[in-house]
Amino acid sequence: MKQILSGNDLIKLLDALSNPFRFKIIAILHQEKKYVSQLARELGISRPLLYLHLQKLEEVELIKGHHEISETGKAMKYYELNSFNIVLNEQIIADLAENLSIKKRKD
């Protein structure tokens, strides 16, 4: 996972972690890499929905996907967890908030 350099990076990371399915995906991939159908079955969700969650986790570099050829010759996309360590405290939030881009509402 890349270093968090801005408040916007932190918000994207926290957003990616804010969904129970994505949280569960991280827990599953912590044990071992899995291919898409395995993850969908374990989570009890459709593959299209799973892909949306996987994309969100890939965007913040918490997971990575790669193709492997199975013994039967079929290309399968596997996902695995990237190693990460998140440290967050009030000083880090204050520092990152200084360069946070916030859209102002039009009244």
From TrEMBL:
The keyword Transit peptide does not apply. It holds the Pfam family HTH_5. Keywords: DNA-binding, Transcription, Transcription regulation. Signal peptide: none annotated. GO terms for molecular function: DNA binding; DNA-binding transcription factor activity. It comes from the Bacteria. PANTHER family: TRANSCRIPTIONAL REGULATOR, ARSR FAMILY, TRANSCRIPTIONAL REPRESSOR SDPR. Transmembrane segments: none annotated. This is Winged helix-turn-helix transcriptional regulator.
